[in-house]
């Protein structure tokens, strides 16, 4: 449950699990989530914040692993 016990919002893990299911995908493991968050952080801090979600989307369009993409992002 979220930090606020009165909230009806799902946790990030719950939301991602439901979204992954609707997309016909497996939910990413904790290491992959952490790597994607790191990638988003690199993109957001090296540019504008809007680069973060787009960078993660771009990874999904490639055969790169999130770890490979993070390494590339750190080179920019």
Compact description:
With 76 residues, the protein is mainly alpha-helical. It is 64% helix and 0% strand.
List keywords for this structure.
mainly alpha
List the helices and strands and how they pair.
Elements: H1 12-23, H2 30-46, H3 51-60, H4 66-75
- Average pLDDT works out at 93
Radius of gyration, in angstroms, nearest whole number: 14 Å
DSSP summary: helix tally? 4
Fraction of residues in helices? 55-70%
> Which structural class matches the secondary elements?
mainly alpha
Based on DSSP secondary structure assignment, what is the total number of beta strands? 0
What can be said about the biggest beta sheet? none
What is the ordering of alpha helices and beta strands? HHHH
Oligomer: single chain
Instruction: Report the uncertain regions.
Output: none
Instruction: Give the DSSP E fraction (strand runs of 2 or more residues).
Output: under 5%
Shape: globular
């Amino acid at each position: 449950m979220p930090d606020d016990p009165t909230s009806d919002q799902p946790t990030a893990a719950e939301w991602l699990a439901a979204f992954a299911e609707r997309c016909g995908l497996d939910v990413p493991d904790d290491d992959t989530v952490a790597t994607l968050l790191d990638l988003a952080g690199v993109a957001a801090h090296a540019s504008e914040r809007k680069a973060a979600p787009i960078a993660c989307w771009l990874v999904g369009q490639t055969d790169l692993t999130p770890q490979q993409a993070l390494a590339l992002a750190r080179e920019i």
